[in-house]
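Allow me, if you will, to draw on your knowledge of protein folds for a short while. I have a record of one protein: its chain in single-letter code and its fold written as discrete structure tokens. The full record is reproduced below for your convenience:
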Amino acid sequence: MTWRVIVGTISAVLTMILLGFVAITEPDRMVGFTRAYGSRQIENGAAIFENSCKPCHRLDGKGVPAKGPALNTVELFNGTRTLDAGWTGTIDNFVRLTIAAGRPRPSAYYTSENFLDPMPTWGEDYGGPLRKDEVDALTTYIMNWGESYKDASGNFLAPTPTPLIDAVGTDLNVELPQGNAERGADLATAQACTACHIDSSTGPAWLPTGDVAGMGVRAEERYQSGDYTGAATSAAQYLHEAIVQPDVYLVAGFQPGVMPKNFGEKLTKQDLADLIAYLLTIK
């Protein structure tokens, strides 16, 4: 009987030691588990965002003019956007509910920026295609952008003021500097032009397809066509007009009011010259 008592005592002591060890390490283990789970959520959310959200919000979340607002911006995370919408809950829940239920009634911000496409319903509870866990993953991915807008104390940074520029305006006869096609290609992505003209069919395609030439060739043909209603006298001027006066001439099959009309206010003369130089290289 003595050896059984000894074994029992040793087993009890070992069990107590093991339970103590588990109790001590449990917080760290849970932190690691939470971190790993969050990382998987972000990865899953990134895949969903690329497949479903990129056309309107761009892959980097910076938004597409006239289609969808920027999500990767301090104004969303510091409460500016939610205050404008009259939301009194958390930013996390604002994002989650907007994804799940859509935006049937645009906020003042959404209306003022002239976004034409309504935010659709994505959550299956509201008739959309995404499960609750997918909506949660997408929310986690978007909210993760907010970490880059915090200072060392964890407070959100103030929005960066939009710098004043010497805008090119809408006059087709303004003299433009020599354009840089390489910079123009980068600018086309930064201004989200590629979202409508390359990544989707929202606007006339820039790239050549099949027997259809690229925009650089078509620009030369269009200003000389019989149905042209603009004032351009060259391919470069046609592109100039299409950017700053987009509704003067509409390519067949496309509607007015889709292309933003404020590029004359957002671009400098050099910006416009670089974009035109880039477009003329697309043969």
The first helix runs from residue 2 to 57.
